[in-house]
Amino acid sequence: MPNHEPRTSQHDVVLLRNGRVLDPSQRMDIVGDVLIVDGKIEHAGAPLGDVRRDGDLVEIDCAGQIVSPGFVDVHCHLREPGREDVETIATGARAAAAGGFTAVCAMPNTDPVTDNQAAVGFIIRQALRAASARVYPIGAISVGQRGEALAEFGEMIGAGAVAVSDDGKPVASAQLMRSALEYARTFEIPVADHCEEPTLAAGGAMNEGVVSARLGLKGIPNEAEEIMVIRDILLARRTGGHVHLCHMSTKGSVELIRWGKERHIRVTAEVCPHHLSLTEDSVEGYNTNAKMNPPLRTAEDVEFLKEAVKDGTIDLVATDHAPHHYDEKEREFSDAPNGIVGLETALAVLVTNLVVPGIIDYATLVERMSCSPTRIFNLPGGNLRRGSVGDITVFDPTMRWSVDPSSFLSKGRNTPYAGKLLMGRATCTVVGGRVVYRLTN
Amino acid sequence: MSGAGSAIGKDLLGLEELSADQIQLLLDTAEPFKEISLRAIKKVPTLRGATIVNLFFEASTRTRISFEFAEKRLSADTVNVQSSGSSVSKGETLVDTARNLEAMKIDMVVIRHPSSGAARFLAQRIESNVINAGDGMHEHPTQGLLDLLTLRDHFKRLAGLKVCICGDVLHSRVARSNIWGLKKMGAEVAICGPRSLLPNAVEAMGVTVFRRIEEAIEWADALNILRLQLERMQAGYIPSQREYNRVFGVTREKLERAPRDILIMHPGPMNRGVEIDSDVADGPHSVILDQVTNGVAVRMAVLYLLSGGNPALAEAAKG
User: Fold this and answer.
1) Cβ partners under 8 Å of residue A261, min gap 6
2) Are B116 and A286 an interchain contact pair (Cβ–Cβ within 8 Å)?
3) Has residue A1 been placed in a domain?
4) Please, which residues 189-208 of chain A have a Cβ atom closer than 8 Å to chain B?
């Protein structure tokens, strides 16, 4: 049994030896060493000789492993404040570190909603106390996520928010979305939208298609997402604002994003590991761990999304980590909540479903998990240049492991991957020059 | 009473998961049970000592009474539990309700529930036999079986029959059970209704779709006409009952143009003058009340087989 005891060493010097050092931002791919001193990268690349430093030196042998800039998940739900029974910022941050993420962005659909500077400050403080992966708050677009009045973007950003979103709910009003995109330009932050046309999606429990017809479940058509995707792209064109489209799930969305990017509209997009690996067939038997929003779609949608990750139409992969209590998923399908946990399986799902079949290489994986999210959300990291923040993910690309939800560091156990044999696993996570996670057997 | 080794499995959740042989067995087993309901003393000791809970989370008159007659005529002890709303609004979860009932040592649960998949959910979590009396928009297997039995009584066969299911297929568990049952028994199945009330990908279930009721009447040996719920107008699926009757209602005028006599079925309760006109419902080709009669026999057969009864002894089991 792997043991995930988080290490809380305070060493100022970390030396990662003999790994495959991979930094797509500078096309680096070399077997060598990475040295982090005082929380910053001092060296990444060719092997170093003897390293002598005052104080403790943590030296980790990374032979056979990939050493890359830290992964950043721009979309997760840490449930604090409000639902500390299903996740806290501390457990979420530790789960992130165990999944190889050095930083995550916490969505604001907490209770109360993270729609003001005090709420943002609370998350920042809880994250500091957790002392694991970094947690960047995302503030709400609208007060109370009610889709009416704009929240105070400026004050929230002043307190540490990195973007705004009403995720969990769509911004139903086109006028409000337009205002948000315009107003956000002052602060140069992305407006992240959960694309769902509410009247088309109302009451829907899964993808609308062959399986929903058979199971007698109300379906959510692809167009519920795509109508909002094109609305947001057109509003970004009108306003010059930066729209970031959350959890894309359909072929049509990919085509629309491609259309927008060809016209140099400021649109970026993310996709979740589950939408790259599972289809609506997973719902068979009314499996509530396959219930999420947007729903799992068809094999054709999955193929398009994989291709979009490869060619960059989809900029990055984010987890939409959504822990729920066991009791909440142990219900009739239509009553069960949407969402699955993802922080601790994301890397392996991507390696298994995209890298192993040869769709993308490891450099592209690191680009979509680290370089691209940091660039799009204006976050530190995403590269191994000297002086850059010492956030590093070390992973074993060939390690096979079977998903056992009871061993998750997240409080959430709701995953459709339970029992699945996957390949690729984070072995060491370094945040600001501190080893916050090591996988030990 | 476990019945895990019964010829139709532990539970009856839907017709989709049954084989043609199992459906045939259920229909054949229902035959001898028909006669019990014709006796002066409508009771046999077959399920004496068995405890059955009828767990209804949705209003139902016909199905609940039909199950209760079937249970009582087989001498089972029955309890009816009526509860409205889902587990969320009720405060107690479905699984807790069921486990509490099971703690009182019961043998079977008949469940009607507004959520698709609720019967399966229950079956996976309790030891008792579970019979699906309708789960959301998913299946209503005993209705499907009684429809098959009624068709077989009339035509003396199911293979090759042309049956069209008319109306709100999208929201209909009766339609789904009929589609699976009819197709497995070799019948040809079509559906006909406003496209806004048909599932988007329904062709993948192997059915023909008729745009107009006149085309269905031209083609079919039998029509199974579904009830049109009032909510469908309120939710904007279709404009009005009046227009529905004009375009999709089965009327004598439309039937008179048919090339053959068409058997008329309806799972009830009927909206006379909406999906079906009274002179069709009460006409010479209507078997709507035969369906109701067959419902009791089919449910007796289901209870008997799930309880582990030997199909070959069904005649003797009548006592």
Assistant:
1) A267, A313
2) yes
3) no
4) 208
B33: CB partners within 8 A, 6+ apart: B296, B297, B300, B301, B304, B314, B318
Asked if A217 reaches chain B (Cβ–Cβ under 8 Å), the answer is yes
User: What's the rounded Cα separation, in Å, for the pair A378 and A205?
Assistant: 35
Catalytic residue of the set A320, A335, A391, A404: A320
| A128 touches B at CB < 8 Å | no
Q: How far apart are CA B113 and CA B284, in angstroms?
A: 35
Are B20-139+295-312 and B141-291 the same fold in CATH? Answer: yes
Question: Tens digit of pLDDT for each residue in A299-330?
Answer: 999 999 999 999 999 999 999 999 999 999 99
**Parent domain of A63:** 13-67+388-438
Which residues in A lie closer than 8 A to residue B113 (C-beta atoms)?
Answer: 332
Asked whether the beta carbons of A98 and A426 are under 8 A apart, the reply is yes
CATH class of the domain at B141-291: alpha beta
In chain B, residues with a C-beta closer than 8 Å to the C-beta of A206 are none
Q: Considering only CA atoms, give the Rg of chain B.
A: 19
Every domain of chain B and the residues it spans? 20-139+295-312, 141-291
Catalytic residue numbers of B read 62-63, 90, 112, 140
Of B86, B204, B205, the CB nearest to A335: B86
Interface test with B, best of A212, A214, A223, A279 (most B CBs within 10 A): A214
What residue type is assigned to position A420 of the chain? K
Q: Is the CB of A300 inside 8 Å of chain B's CB atoms?
A: no
| Nearest to A274, CA basis, from A342, A227, A338 | A342
- Looking at residue A62, the DSSP 8-state letter turns out to be -
The CATH class of B20-139+295-312 is alpha beta
pLDDT tens-digit map of A371-385:
999 999 999 999 999
Tell me the pLDDT of chain B (319 aa) as tens digits. 444 568 999 999 999 999 999 999 999 999 999 999 999 999 999 999 999 999 999 989 899 999 999 999 999 999 998 887 555 456 788 888 888 888 999 999 999 999 999 999 999 999 999 999 999 999 999 999 999 999 999 999 999 999 999 999 999 999 999 999 999 999 999 999 999 999 988 888 999 999 999 999 999 999 999 999 888 888 899 999 999 999 999 999 999 999 999 999 999 999 999 999 999 999 999 999 999 999 999 999 999 999 988 777 777 776 6
CATH code (residue A172) = 3.20.20.140
C-alpha B241/C-alpha B249 separation (Å) is 9
Alpha carbon A15 to its chain's center: 27
Handedness of CA A6, A435, A93, A424 (dihedral sign): negative
**Final residue before a domain boundary, out of A351, A376, A401:** A376
Query: How far apart are the CA of B74 and the nearest CA of chain A, in angstroms?
Result: 31
CA distance B112 to chain A (A): 13
Question: Which of B93, B138, B201 shows the shortest C-beta gap to A216?
Answer: B138
